[in-house]
Specification:
The complex is a heterodimer. Chain A is α+β, with helices and mostly antiparallel strands. Chain A has four helices and twelve strands, in the order αβββββββαβββααββ. Classes of the chains: A alpha+beta, B alpha+beta.
């Protein structure tokens, strides 16, 4: 009896069939992973890294006033150094100890809460740790009592993901009192405090000082 | 009389050793395409898995791949001494236990308070508060306060050490206890300093399966 198919054809057909099964299985696995990624990006947002040598920032919705969070991509060897407006800078990235630092994504958080009758409570979550402290004066806490939503907020990456060059300032957050609250605050503080008053009562800034005055206060939109 | 045939005999072309038929060529293309697809899919899957690992630590979403196992995800901290977990418990009977003394001891310290917790998905919250002269540990789930332990303010000492049993998300056997948090307190002014690892005051939270009672014969 003569075989209808040559042995070579049978081998090739079987190879193709086995390959087809593997394609189906790997495709199914991919679909499962893609579904998980989609589920997770609902909470973390989708941050597309267009240039691995630039910082990428996406603000996350916390659903609370004066509670801010960001998903941030930091390029390799970039140390997140806090730029204080009144004191010297503080490193808040894990210190590398001379070792190369890999590129990574982190969640940073700034959260204000009222205390019973003292100043505001401030919680900051950095790349590798967190701390809580009292913030501002009791007068500021009184002015803001129940009115956190009135504060003027400038948050980087709030409208859409942005990218910032590594040698540019990374100014994540600036909080300012609106005119009516500012006037109310002025009534409660002394002349000395008024002289030292900074309209931006809280800033969350990293990296170097701006080399030139900021034009828009926003990074470069990611396309 | 038949005419003599002058037609030459049919000469079949000699097939080269490497020559294959159209059908074999079709099967070859099919096999190569299928395996190229496998290679491409595997490379893409590896990239997606890397992306998923990264997202997993950022999003802390509860993943239930095997519904017969416990699943747990530690949520991002949003305040000091406030911890949140999303927990899935497969069908069965469980209780949530709180201990405040002799932590850490192996395997578990004496239970101070416990409550049954139903199978299914829960958001469990543990908050520590200092209210006037009292330290409070409050355990809530699904938005309701369920267990509160109270001690004098000095109980929490002047420093604490947290051992996060769950760092991101994972699945575990439903027959084993799930330790959510193990916090130990220490007091630098204590007259009887305790060494590292020695039992001390603290707050330990875990969920353990409760063996079902067999009906009496």
């Amino acid at each position: 009896m003569k075989l209808k198919y040559k042995p070579l054809d049978v081998i090739l057909l079987l190879t193709a069939l086995v390959g087809g099964v593997f394609v189906w299985r790997t495709g199914k696995e991919q679909a499962r992973i893609r579904a998980k990624i989609e589920q997770m990006t609902r909470t973390t947002g989708d941050l597309v890294i267009t240039d691995p040598d630039r910082i990428h920032v996406l603000a996350l919705d916390t659903g609370e006033p004066l509670h801010f969070a960001w998903r941030i991509y930091l390029p390799a060897d970039y140390e997140l150094i806090r730029r204080e407006t009144s004191s010297s800078s503080v490193t808040v990235s894990p210190t590398s100890g001379g070792d190369p630092i890999p590129a990574r994504e982190v969640i940073l958080r700034v959260h204000f809460r009222e205390s019973a009758d003292g100043p505001l409570n401030l919680y900051e979550r950095h790349e590798d740790g967190s701390h809580r402290e009292y913030f501002g004066s009791v007068s500021l806490a009184k002015v803001l009592h129940g009115r956190f939503d009135k504060v003027i907020v400038e948050q980087l990456g709030a409208r859409k993901a942005v990218s910032v060059d590594m040698d540019e300032p990374l100014d994540l957050l600036s909080l300012k009192l609106p005119a009516d609250l500012e006037a109310e605050y002025f009534k409660q503080i002394s002349a000395v405090e008024r002289a030292e008053y900074n309209p931006q009562f809280f800033q969350y800034c990293f990296g170097p000082e701006a080399k030139k005055p900021p034009t828009s206060g926003e990074g470069e939109p990611i396309r | 009389m038949s005419e003599p045939s002058n037609a030459s005999p049919v000469v079949r072309p000699v097939k080269s050793r490497w020559q294959i038929g159209l059908r074999s060529l079709f099967f070859l293309i099919l096999a190569v395409s299928a395996w190229l697809g496998v290679i491409r899919n595997r490379a893409q899957t590896r990239e997606l898995e890397l992306r998923l690992d990264n997202l997993r630590s950022l999003s802390r979403e509860l993943e239930v791949d095997d519904p017969s196992q416990i699943a747990v995800a530690k949520k991002h901290d949003e305040w000091m001494s406030e911890d949140r977990w999303d927990v899935y418990l497969p069908p069965g009977t469980y209780r949530l236990c709180v201990a405040t003394e002799l932590i850490p001891t192996a395997p578990f310290p004496p239970v101070r308070k416990s409550l049954p917790i139903a199978s299914g998905q829960h958001r469990i919250a543990v908050d520590q508060r200092i209210e006037k002269e009292t330290w409070k540990g409050v355990v809530s789930w699904d938005g309701s306060k369920r267990l509160t332990v109270e001690e004098p303010k000095e109980f929490s000492g002047d420093s604490s050490s947290t051992s996060d049993e769950i760092t991101i998300s994972e699945q575990r056997s439903a027959s084993e206890s799930l330790v959510l948090s193990r916090i130990t307190f220490s007091n630098s002014s204590s007259k009887t300093p305790v060494g590292p690892g020695a039992p001390s005051n603290g707050l330990m939270i875990w969920i353990e399966p409760v063996p079902e009672k067999k009906p009496a014969r």
